[in-house]
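Exam prep: given the inputs below (a chain plus magnesium ion), describe the expected output before reading on.
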Amino acid sequence: MGSPVLFLVIPCYNEEAVLPLTIPLFDAVMRDLIAREAISADSKILFVNDGSTDGTWQLLAQKCREDALYEAISLSRNCGHQRALYAGVMEVRGRCDCIVTADCDGQDDVSVIGQMLERYEQGADIVYGVRNSRRADSFAKRHTAHLFYRFLHLLGAETVYDHADFRLITSRVADALAEFDEVDLYLRGIVPLVGFESACVTYERGERLGGKSRYSPARMFSLALDAVTGFSVRPLRIISAVGCMVSLLSFIGIIWTFFQYFSGNTVWGWSSTLCVLCFVSGVQLISLGVVGEYIGRIYMEVKGRPRYIIAKRIRGDSRDASGLQAQERKEK
Ligand code: UDP
Ligand code: MG
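Solution:
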């Protein structure tokens, strides 16, 4: 068996500050793996430009023109990290044996790809990169992340603890992923659902080498909502349980009201009435919100809109013989 063809897929969103620092790292790791024949010489790095508004695309296009190791696609607008990753995986599946996805900011230690490949050779179809510490994260991020994983587990959505989107998958896992039609993508939840044999490789997650995080608290919250509602209907069951409890309390309250009425104590009671009213309307609104969240998602899924649109693509076969004049092929 020859060495596997590997594609390293890297999403980038407004990353002109960090790419000049991290591209040499990716480059060195890939060339070293090729030199050691751990991967085939046809292996490549694919950048996914996720609708950047700075000079990211120009930088990536330039790199592709200079060097046949690189390919790039550009999405028509910013679609978010998960969709950008998915677009990259869909772009390369069928042309390789395995795919590694990693962030472009240097936080994922690409030097462990060698270890991932060893697990792959031993038969794993999915190799998760699991961070061995969160020292690089801020206090708030570290603690919200832990709470989040626990919360997800409680709700019954299976994810790999402390694994982000740094992983190796084989082409058959990518093919299986292509069967998942959901618009709200949460790959950390979907990949374990695919099944097959999996393994983990631990790595030290470093700090961002430049630029700043593209995940605002609002985006993280939205990702968390995708994770919960996309993989568990337990919140709906919790609502039913709370509804039963509140109904039981209400029933006791009604008996108590009758009792008070017949004992002639009905003048006072303003505070208790208001408290009950506030409590019940609060519970109702929250429940309605949760149900609405699911309905909204059904609405978006039913439309079945494309998750991303590729606007430009630079591939090896669009490069001329000198390897210098890659054409940006516009998608029809
Ligand atoms: N990213 C993306 N689209 C987005 C947001 C982020 O492609 O809308 C990319 C980003 O360029 C980086 C990766 O996703 O390669 C992870 O983002 P970031 O480092 O900002 O997240 P953090 O590490 O802070 O969670
Ligand atoms: Mg990062």
